[in-house]
Amino acid sequence: MNFFILINIILCILLFEFLNPVFGHTKEIVPNIAELWDRYKANDAGKYPTIKFPYEHCFKLAARKYDLTISLLLAVARGESNFNPKAKSNRNCHGIMQILWPQTAKHLGIYRLEALYHPCTNIDAGAKYLRELVDHYDGNYHLVLAAYNYGPSRIRKNSKPNRIPNGAQWYSSYIYHHLKYVTQGAVSPGRPNANGRPVYSPDNRIEIITFNKPYRAASYYQHLQSRAPGLKLEWYRIGLGRYQVAMRYTDKRALNEGKKTLKNLGVKLKGR
């Protein structure tokens, strides 16, 4: 056998063995996601975020209008677009809540594409759609989120939590991941004092790696987080079949410290 071919085979085997602990146990990434959503409804739904998010007034109006929790709306918005009102996916979804054009948009009473780029209009549409799904699925947030992503025609009303498409399960887990960020330090009851609330800064992040499968991004995120609990890590869906693991930072000092930590872990930042 050619020496270089033999070396390549050995390297492939070693690489598989190295990656397998990270990517081999995808079912354990978010166990009992339906149960976690139920726990949120029971314990944290009434709490108010301590972070001041973009377009907060729009989210407040929509939450009151459709009787939804503001943290749920914020979690969907963060997961769908990271609060970017100009976001557009290659599946023809638009704006902060990524409303599908034209089918879902017209169903929600929006007949001009440009209207989806108005933050309050888009957030209202997303909240209206979520309200329809909450009513249809009798408040089962796991199925609600699955249907928000996959469409209600593909998610049965009485589906078992683990009997829906894998992609829909991952989307529910994905939004729950962002919900945990939104609700960190959340307070209850009522609204917090507006003074001193930190303002959310969606642009302060640096890419670590991008995957083509959500479970790989989530696994790698958890792998890094377990090795460096002090890092502010996130994973985002950034397009069709693209899932990015990123590091968030507050200032230049935090950025440099985070980059140093990642370097010590053997992680090479893209383009750095």
Give a nutshell description of this structure:
By secondary structure, the protein is mainly alpha-helical. It has two domains: 154 residues, Lysozyme (Orthogonal Bundle); 60 residues, no CATH class.
Report on the structure:
By secondary structure, the protein is mainly α. It folds into two domains: 29-182, Lysozyme, CATH 1.10.530; 205-264, no CATH class. It has ten helices and five strands; from the N terminus they run H-H-H-H-E-E-H-H-H-H-E-H-E-E-H. Strands 3-5-4 form a three-stranded antiparallel sheet, sandwiched between helices. Strands 1-2 form a two-stranded antiparallel sheet. Strand 1 and strand 2 (99-100) form a beta hairpin. Helix 7 packs across helix 8 (166-182). The longest helix is centred in the first third of the chain and has 21 residues, at 3-23. The radius of gyration is 20 Å and the shape is globular.
Give the secondary structure arrangement, pairings included:
Blueprint: H1 3-23, H2 33-43, H3 56-65, H4 70-81, E1 93-94, E2 99-100, H5 103-107, H6 119-136, H7 141-150, H8 166-182, E3 205-211, H9 214-227, E4 233-239, E5 242-248, H10 252-264
Antiparallel strand pairs: 1-2, 3-5, 4-5
Helix pairs in contact: 3-6, 4-8, 6-7, 7-8
